[in-house]
Amino acid sequence: MSVIAPPGEGIETAEWPRFAVSLAPPDLSPWLEGNTGVRGFTSFAAPRSGPHVVIIALIHGNEIGGAIALDTMLRAELRPMRGRLTLGFANIDAFGRFDPANPIASRFVDEDMNRVWDVATLDGPRRSLELDRAREMRALIDTADWVLDLHSMLWPSDPLLLCGSGARGKALALAIATPGLVVADGGHAGGRRLIDYPRFTAERGDAASVLVEAGQHWQETTVGQMQASIAALLAHAGMVEPVPARSAGARFAEVTRVVTATTGRFAFVRPFRGGEVIRRRETLLAHDGTAEIRTPHDDCLLIMPSLRTGRGHTAVRLARFVE
After folding, report:
1. pLDDT tens string 164-186
2. Which residues pair with 182 in a beta bridge?
């Protein structure tokens, strides 16, 4: 059985495999009004001073695991011991279109919200539902000290923290260390992610943002990983006690090459899993039309290979561990 590919993927075939959906989308209606002036964002301030931590779900409307994690926190009435904690649901309109029978179709309405976070785009004249929503969220993001962006993955992959290219993102990710792999990369050819927003990457400043890819979409274990990452961040910020058990530390890797499909006929030679390490350089990974994609170095870590990739989209990131 198959489902219809979402619009804009640029893949020559219109059919995708059917993916198991083990999660039910939560009822977010109690949280949509919020209390920040930004729809879907709710903030809690403690009497004691501390950082402003913002945790965001649903940058992609079909990644409902993050919505479940934040809905659970809000219903539990968690309050920070210090600082300010803001919980927010980003692409509410795309989430409202989520259909378990075709779960990949509600990633966005007009465009990917995680490709619009550069100043020229945000300040420019172009309009889309996602871009307008990012502009609405921007005033709140500009007050954040630390942002955790909750994501999940379509294809099988080990969970990881993406810290972008800035030193502050790397430091925050290594402090969270849950999951135990931190990857630094420069983003996508298609546009800047929230973690690439200049507030978090500029040479001057203290703010930082990281993105957790917590596991495969629509799986209970993915929600559990998100909750563990949230708990580790709140413990690091001194917002909760007792401090949960921490990991022994994370491995750190840097992306050495971003492979972007240049044709609509990109195909891996086998179904690689994210987190696999290919031991020898020049190992054949994929064909992009007639071009061969090979590992550029020994011990090449595969980051989130997309087993069906459209022209102009990221197919895989290749990385090297750094001790």
Report:
1. 988 999 999 999 999 999 999 98
2. 161, 252
